[in-house]
Amino acid sequence: MNDSGAVKIDVLTEDHRAGMSAKRHAPRTPRDAAALILLDRSHAVPRALLGKRGKGHAFMPDLYVFPGGRRDPGDNRTPLARPLGDAVADKLMQRTKARFHAQAARGLAVAAAREMHEEAHLSLTPAEYEGSLRPDVSHFRYLARAITPPGQPRRFDTRFFTCFCDELGLDPSAIRDSDELHDLRWLPVDAHDSHPLPRITKVILTDVVKALEEDPSLPFGRAVPFYYFRNGHFVRELI
Question: To 5 degrees, how large is the angle CA 15–CA 16–CA 22?
Fold first, then answer.
């Protein structure tokens, strides 16, 4: 551990290297991205929505991931039905560069909602705004952040949000496959070894389990694990 509270976690390294492409790619600046860990708590063990990426994808092919993707320029300008909670918005601004502004943080929440609609056909836009993209992100918790290691064909600085289906009136059975994700499934957050997941996805699901154990309501504004690669090691730091 260093003075900032960062902790090296070598447990990630071996599994990560096994999944890395053999070809090392030129340095790339990570692009802002967002993912939504949608939880169904109607079962004894909450379930998370994941889908399988196609084998033709350059990034994480044939692996099950949370719906999500990069933030598009228009996401910053998309209106919201209901905004992020203040605690979440404030936390998103921490450990960011000077050019990262409140609209960009807001755009990350829009990106997560938009990708959920595009990849799983679940709309977070309330009925009164049907026909447009105007999501309700007021229930989003900021759960984790992770930066793709160097040398990968794509690099993202991903913020992982989470919320419960019932908070938004979503029917878990309404999910439908898309061009981006197929074989969409609700997997128990503590039992997902039957499906191939990226190591970072497994780690973040472990964070979900711990957070639910601490408080099943998942309070807003809790400390956020931040994963990144430094000097040959994965590092976990709390924001």
Answer: 115
